[in-house]
Amino acid sequence: MKNLLNSGLTHYFYGGDEQVLKKMDIYLKNDFPDAKVLGYRSPPFVPAEEIKSNLQIADDIEEIKKLKPDIVWIGISSPKQDYLMHHHYTNFDHSLMIGVGGVFLYISDESLKSPEWVKKIGMRWAYRLSKEPKRLWPKYYETILFLVKNSGFFIKSALNRA
Questions:
Q1: Number of neighbouring beta carbons within 10 Å of residue 108
Q2: What is the pTM of this model?
Q3: Residue 107: how many other CB atoms lie within 10 Å
């Protein structure tokens, strides 16, 4: 993201809440004064199954489309951001949507960032879980359960590639 903010491309940030977006705006203006940010918008909080049909999201996407940003950063957590991009990518002729999950939170709150060594060993998810267990455990539980149930498949696949 940092390289792209310095690239001369135009950007739009869709996600987070108003407080997160205000903090992001301050951070970006201070650390990336030349970044071409066209706007920020906080989407409504809706269940994943309502993303496709939500009128406010559809209106937001239309407004973003009119601005023609090069990159639309989607920061509304997974899998919701994936559904949003899947259902609305055809609305953009010019823009690339990039799902960045918790990046808006990292930018707006230094305390959520993991130490560099945690990032390097690929355990940022575990660090986040330790910081926000009540919020993240239900999301991570399903993924962990899937991986455990299908571990035989993943091991066989890895061995066949070797």
A1: 20
A2: 0.74
A3: 24
